[in-house]
Design brief:
DNA/RNA_pol_sf, Reverse transcriptase domain-containing protein, Alpha-Beta Plaits, 16 strands, alpha+beta, RT_dom, two-stranded antiparallel ribbon
Length: 403
C-alpha cells in the first residue's frame, strides 16, 4: 500500500471524483487486508474569506514572483469595497481586509497557493479539494494513532500561523474497518475531542464505516425519485418526448451516476433500487408515446429500447472504462489509483489476452474497489475496445450499440 497520497486543489485533470476514487481505493485496499483506517475530516471556517493578503503576498514572493507582479497582485487585492444587497436594499459598503475575490479567475489560484503548505511535508496521506481537507492513516496500533494525532496538531499549528480557523466542532473522525474490536482513539484539536461518526458525506458521497455505501445508494435513490416526480409533474403537458428525456437526464439520472465508480453496487438489491427510478420514467414515457402504460412485468430491455436509453448498470460500466481510459491518457490525475494497476507481460504461447493483471482480492470490499471494478469491466469488453488507441466517442458508441 502506498504510504502517501497527495492530491490538491481545483486544478486541471483533478476533480471531486478523482479525490473520492483515491480515498475509496486506499480504504478498499486496507479493509481488504483486514486493517483499519482512521480518516480526519477537517473544516476550515470561511476559508476563502479569511485569506490574509499579507501572508499571501509573502508566499508569492517565496515562490519567486517578481516584485512588479507582487505589487500588481497587491493592488488587485487591496482597497476592495463590498456591500450586501437584499430585495433592492443595500447595506453600507465596507472595505474587504481579507479573502480572495470569489468567482474570479485568479481566486482559486490564490487560494491554492495559500492553503497548500498547510499539509506540506506531513508524513501521513492527505487529500485536498478547495477547502475540503482530510488526512488519514492505516491504524494497526496505538503508535499509528499517535502519529496521526501529531499531524493533526501540526495542521492546527499551521492554521494559526496563517490566520485560519480550524473549527473543531465541525471536524470529525471516522474509523473505517470491519473489525469487531476496532482501535478507537480520541483524536483532539486544541484539547477538544473530535466527534466520532459512523458515516459522513464527503464531496457528495456518503461513506459509512463498513464501506458498504448502502446508505448512500438509498439516499440518492430517494432524492432521484423526488426529482423525477418534479420532472413528471412539470412535463405533464409536454408533447415532445425528447424534452422530457433531457430533463430526466439532467435532473434525475445525473444524481444516480455522480462518482459511481466509488459506490457502484455489487448486490442486486441496491442495483434494482436504482433501476426502479429509471423504470418509473420509462413507463411514463411509453404512456406518452402509446397512450397506455406497458403491461406489468414488461422486460426492462424493451422499455429502454423503445425510449432510447441505456440501463444504469451499462452506464456505470461505460463510465468505469472511460475513467480507465483517461487515467492512461493523462486526462485525469489519480497517482495512487494508477500505481495500483499492473500491466500483464504476455508469455509465448499464453492464452491470456488481457493487457491488465487483476490481483487477488480477499473480500467483497476488494472486489468492488475502483481499480478492480475498472479492470474487470474493461476485461469484459477488451475484445472490442482498446483504450490505448481508441477515443472516448468510440467507447461511448460501443456501449450505446451493445446496450
Amino acid at each position: 500500500m502506498a504510504p502517501f497520497i497527495h492530491a490538491c486543489n481545483i486544478t486541471k485533470c483533478r476533480s471531486t471524483e478523482t479525490n473520492l476514487v483515491s480515498i475509496s481505493q486506499y480504504l478498499s485496499d486496507a479493509l481488504d487486508n483486514h486493517s483499519q483506517v482512521d480518516v480526519v475530516y477537517t473544516d476550515l471556517s470561511k476559508a476563502f474569506d479569511r485569506i490574509d493578503h499579507g501572508v499571501l503576498l509573502i508566499k508569492l514572493e517565496s515562490f519567486g514572483f517578481s516584485d512588479s507582479l507582487v505589487e500588481l497582485i497587491r493592488s488587485y487585492l487591496s482597497d476592495r469595497f463590498m456591500y450586501v444587497g437584499v430585495n433592492g436594499y443595500a447595506s453600507k459598503s465596507f472595505k474587504q481586509e481579507s479573502g480572495v475575490p470569489q468567482g474570479s479567475v485568479l481566486g482559486p489560484l490564490f487560494f491554492n497557493i495559500f492553503i497548500n503548505d498547510l499539509v506540506d511535508d506531513l508524513d501521513v496521506p492527505y487529500l485536498l479539494f478547495a477547502d475540503d481537507m482530510k488526512i488519514y492513516l492505516t491504524v494497526d496500533s496505538i503508535d499509528d494513532a499517535l502519529r496521526l494525532q501529531g499531524c493533526i496538531e501540526e495542521i492546527s499549528k499551521r492554521c494559526k500561523l496563517n490566520n485560519l480557523v480550524l473549527n473543531h466542532l465541525k471536524c470529525s473522525i471516522v474509523s473505517f474497518t470491519r473489525k469487531t474490536k476496532p482501535l478507537l482513539f480520541d483524536y483532539k484539536i486544541n484539547g477538544s475531542i473530535l466527534t466520532r461518526r459512523e458515516s459522513i458525506r464527503d464531496l457528495g458521497v456518503i461513506f459509512d464505516s463498513k464501506l458498504s455505501f448502502g446508505e448512500h445508494i438509498r439516499t440518492i435513490a430517494g432524492t432521484a425519485f423526488r426529482a423525477l416526480g418534479f420532472v413528471l409533474r412539470a412535463g405533464r403537458e409536454f408533447s415532445d418526448v425528447a424534452t422530457l428525456k433531457l430533463l430526466y437526464i439532467t435532473y434525475v439520472r445525473s444524481r444516480l451516476e455522480y462518482a459511481s465508480l466509488v459506490w457502484s453496487p455489487i448486490y442486486d438489491l441496491h442495483s434494482s433500487l436504482l433501476e426502479r427510478v429509471q423504470r418509473r420514467f420509462l413507463k411514463n414515457v411509453v404512456f406518452m408515446l402509446n397512450g397506455a402504460y406497458p403491461p406489468r412485468g414488461c422486460p426492462q430491455g424493451l422499455l429502454l429500447g423503445e425510449v432510447g436509453l441505456q440501463s444504469l448498470l451499462d452506464r456505470r460500466m461505460e463510465h468505469s472504462v472511460i475513467f480507465l481510459f483517461k487515467l492512461f491518457r493523462g486526462l485525469q490525475e489519480c497517482p495512487h489509483v494508477l500505481e495500483r494497476i499492473s500491466l500483464r507481460v504476455s508469455r509465448s504461447g499464453s492464452r491470456v489476452r488481457s493487457v491488465f493483471y487483476i490481483g487477488q482480492r480477499h473480500t467483497d470490499i476488494g472486489l468492488k474497489s475502483p481499480v478492480t471494478r475498472m479492470l474487470r469491466n474493461y476485461q469484459s469488453v477488451e475484445p472490442h475496445i482498446d483504450i490505448f488507441c481508441c477515443s472516448i466517442s468510440q467507447i461511448k458508441k460501443f456501449f450505446s450499440i451493445s446496450s
